[in-house]
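Students often ask why inverse folding is considered easier than folding. One informal answer: many sequences map to the same fold, so there is more than one right answer. In these notes we will look at a single instance of the problem. The structure comes first.
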């Protein structure tokens, strides 16, 4: 009795269908974006079929269209389902980084309140994604080696902000009314530093600058001296640079005061983000486009000496933008209203506009150093190198 085998024609059809499905899954965005060229390619294939198969051309044309539409639908479904399962094609996810991938820290410790980077460690606030969906907020404080090994939870309490210096980790304990504590790098010897609710703080040398419910204060830790610098209450985003204390009285404004409490000035209002650079203040203002696709973003510079403002550049169809170091990073919509894959950046002076990766980003949380911290549609958070070459899961 002869064994039944699949005809060569059936095997060929299945192979072509699988190949089309893989292509659709990997490049569905490009297929949809270049829709006209896709139609031209389909039309060309139909002509080829007509020339090769004159007798049964309608049959093969129907089969081809069925395979194309079927693979496209499966590709669209897989492009939505696989990321939800934590499977990504835009970047390689690893459990442990090589020394080259982990990189080194050149210069001062990096802090932004949610993640800190030192020469040996990465500190970050971790939220259990089964309990909360937003990647930035209250959570336990975690420390890892730079190669992403040796995960250590430093706190049992919830932390909403922290700063790392050369010797200690300063953090606000949510369970204790957001009072300020200090501990060693290994989480040992926690000590209460400020017995008051803290809205924002930073550490410079042996001095803590912080905002409480009735103003901005400076605590000289060694001398145990506290000085009130401003009457502004509940301010955010305290930053120290060149004997000036910069702070946000509201979410969209910026002021500053000398570290001795004199010369308080309002610098800007109705702004979206800002960067305190060596040669001035850079900030952005965003106006929503009339078609609803993104914002028109304008970058301005304000001189520190005479406070004069100059316009640097304007970007269109911006989704979100954030400063880090010497760059403005942003995402954009395409002309057809779809999100353009990848992250862009531009120098503070408006030059060097470039796309630095092709990662499909669902929610960009922060950028620090050579890494971006991203929440994806799947609910997984990732630490991804800015060039998109490698990533680790934030857990």
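Output (designed amino acids):
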């Amino acid at each position: 009795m002869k064994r039944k085998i699949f005809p060569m024609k059936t095997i060929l059809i299945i192979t072509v269908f699988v190949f089309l499905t893989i292509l659709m899954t990997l490049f569905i965005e490009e297929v949809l974006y270049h829709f006209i060229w896709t139609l031209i390619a389909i039309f060309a294939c139909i002509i080829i079929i007509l020339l090769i198969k004159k007798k049964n051309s309608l049959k093969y044309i129907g089969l081809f269209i069925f395979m194309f539409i079927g693979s496209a639908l499966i590709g669209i479904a897989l492009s939505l389902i696989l990321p939800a399962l934590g499977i990504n094609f835009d970047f390689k996810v690893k459990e442990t980084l090589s020394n080259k991938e982990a990189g080194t820290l050149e210069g001062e410790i990096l802090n932004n309140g949610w993640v800190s980077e030192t020469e040996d460690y990465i500190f970050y606030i971790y939220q259990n994604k089964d309990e909360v969906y937003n990647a930035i907020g209250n959570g336990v404080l975690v420390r890892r080696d730079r190669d992403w090994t040796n995960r250590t939870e430093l706190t049992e309490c919830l932390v909403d902000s922290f700063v790392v210096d050369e010797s200690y980790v300063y953090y606000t304990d949510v369970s204790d009314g957001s009072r300020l504590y200090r501990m060693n790098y290994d989480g040992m010897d926690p000590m209460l530093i400020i017995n008051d609710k803290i809205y924002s703080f930073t550490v410079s040398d042996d001095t803590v600058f912080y905002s409480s419910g009735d103003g901005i204060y400076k605590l000289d830790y060694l001398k145990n001296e506290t000085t009130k610098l401003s009457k502004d209450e509940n301010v955010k985003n305290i930053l120290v640079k060149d004997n000036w204390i910069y702070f946000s009285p509201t979410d969209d404004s910026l002021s500053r005061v000398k570290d001795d409490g004199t010369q308080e000035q309002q610098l800007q209002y109705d702004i979206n983000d800002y960067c305190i650079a060596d040669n001035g203040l850079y900030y952005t203002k965003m106006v929503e486009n009339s078609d609803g696709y993104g914002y028109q973003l304008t970058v301005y510079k304000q001189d520190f000496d005479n406070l004069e403002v100059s316009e640097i550049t304007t970007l269109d169809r911006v989704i979100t933008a954030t400063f880090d170091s010497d760059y403005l990073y942003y995402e954009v919509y395409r002309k057809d209203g779809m999100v353009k894959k990848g992250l862009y950046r531009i120098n503070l002076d408006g030059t060097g506009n470039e796309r630095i990766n092709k990662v499909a980003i669902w929610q960009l949380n922060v950028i620090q150093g050579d890494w971006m911290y991203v929440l994806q549609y799947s609910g997984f958070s990732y630490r991804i190198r800015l060039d998109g070459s490698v990533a680790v899961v934030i857990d």
